[in-house]
Amino acid sequence: MSSLTSTSTTTKSTAPGTTGTGRLPQLPQPLKGMTWLVWRQHRAAFWTILGASALAVACIVFQRSQLQIDGYTHISTGLRLIPILLGVFLGAPLFASDLENGTAKLVVTQSVSRTRWLTTKLALTALVVVVSTVALSVAFGWWWSLYKSEVTATEWISESTFNNTGPVPVALALLSVFGGVAIGVVLRRTLMAMVVTLGFTVVVQLVWSHFLLSLGNVVTSTTSKGVMAETAIQTLPTGAHRMDGSNPYLTGDGKLLGWGTCADAQTEQARELCLQKADVVGWSVDYLPISQMNGMQWFGASILLALTAAVTVFLFFWGRKRLA
């Protein structure tokens, strides 16, 4: 009898798929500790961002596979709004909601330090933002490559193309989100932080657009064949963006004259005589070649990322003290 009991006990203890206590083994979790806690707290927002990005990428891939450009303007406009939306709905409430409802006080009273809490939240948020915006940037850039040689289809320096391809959308999104985080930490009120962040992200877009052209090295092309003959018409490389052309006339001594020069001449012959008296010998045109696009994007993105790094330093050295 004791032998049967012993055999039964041994069988139970060595059953496949169980531990020595008869319990099923615990499966390893991909996320642990603070990382798991942050993901669980913000998983709805994170999954929404990743899911929406996946749908947008699928839409772009479909449009591209059909060789369509009908929805190009609408999709590019929507992509330009992503940094603003991420800053308002992800960045601003990230800590502001915890500070407002008292969750922050509970966290800092535990064994987890403020630095670790701040680091984990920022790192996981940045990872989600980078993954989603990189996917969108690659997909949209792939779509735009079909029309890259068609200047009339889309101009590479326009915000709809320049800000949605390469590293620019990633850098813009990170600055918007981290700026929103800093605003939320300072204001400590979710709704107020979201409103201020909306203004902040819009200003970032406006300032960025204002200085966009200054990221490149302007190329000047001149001719000395006069301005009246058809052979004197200035031609630019394919895809070149013509800069401000308010002073297109080039004189013999290198000066530039505006379009109004000899504009009051009544006939072509009178205008030609007037231009000769003004010593106009040809055209002078400033432009940005499309070959500078990648360099301009990386240069601009490095500036945006430097600003993001500055905001991050602010959060660690000053904002960390307010996380309670």
Strand-helix topology:
Blueprint: H1 2-13, H2 33-65, H3 72-91, H4 93-101, H5 103-108, H6 114-144, H7 159-162, H8 168-187, H9 190-210, E1 219-222, E2 241-242, E3 249-251, E4 256-257, H10 268-277, E5 280-288, H11 293-317
Antiparallel strand pairs: 1-5, 2-5, 3-4, 3-5
Helix pairs in contact: 2-6, 3-6, 3-8, 3-9, 4-8, 4-9, 6-8, 8-9, 8-11
Structure description:
- There is one protein chain.
- The chain is of the alpha+beta class and 324 residues long.
- Strands 1, 2, 3, 4 and 5 form a five-stranded antiparallel sheet that branches.
- The chain is built from eleven helices and five strands, in the order αααααααααββββαβα.
- α4 (93-101) packs parallel to α8 and α8 runs antiparallel to α9.
Q: What fraction strand?
A: 5-15%
Counting DSSP H or I runs of 4 or more residues, the number of helices is 11
User: What's the helix-strand series?
Assistant: HHHHHHHHHEEEEHEH
What's the total count of β strands?
5
Helix-strand makeup class: alpha+beta
From the alpha carbons, calculate the radius of gyration and give it in angstroms.
30 Å
Spans with pLDDT under 50 lasting ≥5 residues?
1-19
Q: What is the molecular shape?
A: elongated
- Average pLDDT for all residues: 84
Give the terminus-to-terminus CA distance: 65 Å
Main pleated sheet: 5 strands, antiparallel
The portion of residues assigned to helices is: 55-70%
Oligomer: single chain
